Amino acid sequence: MIMWSIFMKIIKIFLLCLSLTFSTSAFAVCYVSDPTGTPLNVRAKPAGKVIAKLKNGTPVVLIDHVAYYDRKGKAWIQIATPDNKKIGYVFDDYIVCNFDDVW
Questions:
Q1: CA gap 102, 81 in Å, rounded
Q2: pLDDT above 80: residue 82
Q3: Under a CB-based contact definition with an 8 Å cutoff, are residues 61 and 81 in contact?
Q4: What residue ranges define each of the domains in the chain, with the CATH number in brackets?
Q5: Residue 55: which of 30, 78, 34 has the closest Cα?
Q6: Which of 32, 34, 26, 31 is nearest to 100 (CA)?
Q7: pLDDT tens for residues 38-80?
Q8: What is the chain's Cα-based Rg?
Q9: Cα angle, residue 9 at apex, residues 5 and 12 outer, rounded to 5°
Q10: Phi, psi of 92 (to 5 degrees)
C-alpha cells in the first residue's frame, strides 16, 4: 500500500512536469525585420555558413527561446520558415516577435 502511494505521487509529479513542458513550448509568431533592408542570412549554426536568405516581413517560427552567443558576443536564435523548409540561426536583433500570438 505504501509503495502504491509513492508510485502515484511520482506519477503526479511526472505529469505536472510534462504539462509544464508542453504549455511553454508554443511557437511565437515572428517576422524578419532587418534594418539594413537586405535579405537576412539564415545560417547553419550561429555565425556559420549561410544556408538561406529571407526578405523583410517574412514570417518565421521561433524554434528556441534561448539565444546562442558567438565569440563576438552577438546573440543568435534558431528559427524555421512556417513550411519548415529552412531551419537555421539568425541574428537576434533582426527578428521581431509577437508573444501574444502563437502557432
A1: 14
A2: no
A3: yes
A4: 26-102 (2.30.30.40)
A5: 34
A6: 26
A7: 999 999 999 899 999 999 999 998 887 778 888 888 899 999 8
A8: 19
A9: 140
A10: -55, -40
Q: Hey, what's the cell of 86? A: 529552412
Dihedral in degrees, nearest 10, Cα atoms 77, 67, 23, 27: -20
Q: Which three cell numbers stand for residue 49?
A: 555558413
- Grid coordinates of 90: 539568425
Q: What is the band of 12 on the pLDDT scale with cuts at 50, 70, 90?
A: low
What amino acid occupies position 17?
A: C
Note the pTM of the prediction, 2 decimals.
0.67
Report the alpha-carbon distance of residue 21 to residue 30 in Å, rounded: 21
